[in-house]
Amino acid sequence: MAGGAFVDTSGVRNYEGKVTAFVLITCFVAAMGGLLFGYDLGITGGVTSMDEFLIKFFPSVYKKMKDENHETNQYCKFDDQLLTLFTSSLYLAALIASFFAATSTRVWGRKASMFLGGFFFLIGALLNGLALNIEMLIIGRLLLGFGVGFCNQSVPVYLSEMAPANIRGALNIGFQMMITIGILAANLINYSTSKLKNGWRISLGVGAVPALVLCIGVICLEETPNSLIERGDHEKAKSMLKKIRGTKNVDEEFQDLVDASEEASKVDHPWKNISQPEYRPQLTFCSCIPFFQQLTGINVIMFYAPVLFKILGFGDDASLMSAVISGGVNVVATLVSVFTVDKFGRRILFLEGGTQMFICQVIIGIMIAAKFGLTGQGSFSKGEADVLLFFICAYVAAFAWSWGPLGWLVPSEICALEVRPAGQAINVAVNMFFTFIIAQVFLTMLCHLKFGLFFFFAGFVVIMTVFIGLLLPETKNVPIEEMNRVWKSHWFWTRFVPDQVVVGGNNKKVSP
Fold this sequence. Notes:
It is a multi-pass membrane protein. The chain crosses the membrane at residues 19-39, 82-102, 114-132, 138-159, 171-190, 202-221, 283-307, 319-341, 348-368, 388-410, 422-445, 451-472. This is Major facilitator superfamily (MFS) profile domain-containing protein. By secondary structure, this protein is mainly α. The protein has one domain (21-509): Growth Hormone, Chain: A. The chain has helices spanning 21-30, 32-47, 51-57, 59-66, 81-107, 110-129, 134-162, 168-193, 199-205, 208-220, 225-230, 234-245, 251-265, 270-273, 280-295, 298-311, 316-344, 346-372, 382-400, 403-414, 420-449, 452-471, 484-488; strands at 500-503, 506-509. A two-stranded antiparallel ribbon has the order 1-2. Strand 1 and strand 2 form a beta hairpin.
């Protein structure tokens, strides 16, 4: 069994039901939470490359950037810890918020957490757009971070619980799809406002619009059957299950949800429970996948695309337009994942994406090394810049149909109900922690590692691709309540999962 690529899921039961318009509309509205995250990812790099913004808040960086005779190496012109704190502070706040969001998602429901996320983001965006000093700017960023933390905790769980197993991947990737649309929208807005007086205020303030839409939309959403059962409203939960499955014959699935909830309610300490040996696969992937997702180096592009392109010799307009192009590729490539993830599975997308990212990063590193060397002095001709942009876009595309959406999908679908809030909180916390680290140290790393930074991330891509190839079983079309069968059938994880495991809430014998 090479690398555990094959897992027997023949014993997994298929529930009756169809894909209803109600589910599609509900999941679309919920996925708006990803739009907030994506908008912030895309807006930051463009704003930090705008002259007026730098003059007002970071004058030393502006002076260093404009002084062509300055002794600073080209790689180091944006290396400023306060500037990177503007970007990274959001993710530190999101890290803290994710732990509070785990409790609110379980106790108050998925809807409440999504609403809180939208509300925090709304206030933060308004504060940033109206900022008069650096303190106001950072406070706004922290509130944005609380919004991102609550949405990233609750939205993937909501989508996984509402979606039928056979299209769970596609609907859950709606969250990542919205992230990519948010990034593209931010890049387009930055390009449009870069020439306007105080255009940065528009760029930062417009984030309030999707936040307001999310808050209004969430009020109109229905709670998931899992959450309703978890909070004791069985009658409404069964009615909701019939509505989202489009059939009255939901008794078997409903009973499995009830059994799973009753078993989960016996767990007094979900954080302690997820550390037990039988949950070792869930803990491993909820920790390692978000860690590796950030070590792909994608946020180097997403956070700092205009800054990076400017460092590499693109003009002001060209750097912003290049960010728009890579953002467009991001959206289109994510659509590839939407239409293939439930057909071909998670593993093949992970493995192909990792291979493509590695090749592109090595080529990008070689091109920058050949042109800039260690001194950072040099620039690309138009033809060379086009080739560089092509490989950056190919790299973005590979991430967008693999580690981008699957980094949120897989952790949200592999956890049993009794550890699901804790597992998703770990996923978000690890993701936000390493997003914070990368955002805070990238410009310093670029200054010191220079072109070697791309080889640094390429090395991690090799490690994470081997990790997936050896340890991740295929989870497509498997109901969440039946996921333990997958672990029991895997060559490595079978040693941790006992023969008597919870399947649909009942202790049933699982055949290896």
